[in-house]
């Protein structure tokens, strides 16, 4: 029951990406090309999703716990640091080069297109390299303080 | 460059569905719907029960285009106006960036902003500007797509 309900949440997201046209890198890139053939669709998608989520989150968080788990697991970090901003910059360069972001590319895998698989493989490689670098950094830091 | 047209109605309909999906996951399991975080935890799970819900959500995401096909009669368009190396280098940079920056468009741009998280506001502003500058540089300075 729980797995089916969670699957449906994923399906709804994937269908939303498909309907909104956000599975299409050409459309995403054209949003950012204000100086060219501008397509504002992405802004409408993000603002609508954000409004629905903001209202829904407020209602859901009034409850003491989610349906299938003992407590809500929201991110707790409040630090504004170089890692956050630097990461967002790298993400932006990658998004601007490829036209894919993870939330759009994962559903787009379902179209079976080769380019989407190529992007996703590179994405996963980048995630593992970043995690390796962060682990290395943490090791160095703990060696320095020891 | 491939021309696309402004589609406000389908954009709003799809956006509302994306928003509802994030609310559903919060209500069901208490997690934010960040594509990056879900994928990262799927690839390196902390336990089998933690893996199962991530697998279910990814299966749902991937079935999105098939569900679309069921009533639209065609797959959603995927037009890639850039060179293969840009897809690969872009994907790698996105992977680095979302890991260092703890999130992407869904995690920071929708869920984080919906919670009023300052980190997400900073991250979203930063990546939206950087993406815009990158597209400008590629298309209008370098002339690459």
Automatic annotation (TrEMBL), chain A:
List membrane-spanning regions. 41-61, 82-110, 116-134
Entry superkingdom: Bacteria
Q: Which UniProt keywords apply?
A: Membrane, Transmembrane, Transmembrane helix
The record ties this protein, via InterPro entries, to:
DUF6691
Name the record gives this protein: Membrane protein
From TrEMBL, chain B:
Q: Which InterPro entries match?
A: Sulf_transp_TsuA/YedE
Membrane topology according to the record:
Multi-pass membrane protein
UniProt entry keywords in alphabetical sequence: Cell inner membrane, Cell membrane, Membrane, Transmembrane, Transmembrane helix, Transport
Give the residue range of the signal peptide.
Answer: none
Transmembrane residue ranges: 12-39, 51-71, 83-100, 121-142
The reply to whether Mitochondrion figures as a keyword in the UniProt entry is no
Q: Does the keyword Ribonucleoprotein apply?
A: no
Which locations, inside or outside the cell, does it occupy?
A: Cell inner membrane
UniProt similarity note: Belongs to the TsuA/YedE (TC 9.B.102) family.
The name this protein carries in UniProt is YeeE/YedE family protein
What is the originating organism of this protein? Answer: Sinisalibacter lacisalsi
Which lineage is the organism of this entry classified under, starting from the top rank?
A: Bacteria, Pseudomonadati, Pseudomonadota, Alphaproteobacteria, Rhodobacterales
């Amino acid at each position: 029951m729980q797995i089916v309900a969670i699957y449906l949440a994923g399906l709804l997201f994937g269908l939303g990406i498909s309907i909104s046209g956000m599975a299409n890198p050409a459309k995403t890139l054209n949003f950012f090309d204000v100086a060219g053939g501008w397509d504002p669709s992405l802004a409408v998608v993000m603002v609508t999703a954000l409004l629905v989520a903001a209202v829904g989150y407020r209602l859901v968080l009034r409850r003491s716990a989610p349906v299938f788990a003992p407590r809500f697991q929201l991110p707790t970090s409040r630090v504004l640091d170089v890692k956050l901003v630097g990461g967002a910059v790298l993400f932006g360069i990658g998004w601007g080069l490829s036209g894919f972001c993870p939330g759009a590319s994962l559903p787009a895998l379902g179209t079976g297109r080769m380019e989407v698989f190529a992007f996703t493989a590179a994405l996963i490689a980048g995630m593992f390299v970043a995690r390796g670098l962060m682990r290395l950094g943490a090791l160095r830091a703990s060696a320095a303080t020891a | 460059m491939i021309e696309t047209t402004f589609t406000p109605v389908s954009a709003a309909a799809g956006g509302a569905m994306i928003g509802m999906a994030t609310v559903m996951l919060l209500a069901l399991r208490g997690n934010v719907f960040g594509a990056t975080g879900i994928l990262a935890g799927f690839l390196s799970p902390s336990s089998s029960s933690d893996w199962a819900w991530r697998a279910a959500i990814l299966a749902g995401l991937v079935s999105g285009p098939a569900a679309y096909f069921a009533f639209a009669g065609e797959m959603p368009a995927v037009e890639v106006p850039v060179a293969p190396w840009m897809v690969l280098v872009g994907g790698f940079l996105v992977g680095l960036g979302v890991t260092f920056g703890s999130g992407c468009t869904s995690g920071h741009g929708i869920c984080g902003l919906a919670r009023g998280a300052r980190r997400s506001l900073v991250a979203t502003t930063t990546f939206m500007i950087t993406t815009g500058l990158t597209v400008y540089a590629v298309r209008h300075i370098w002339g690459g797509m």
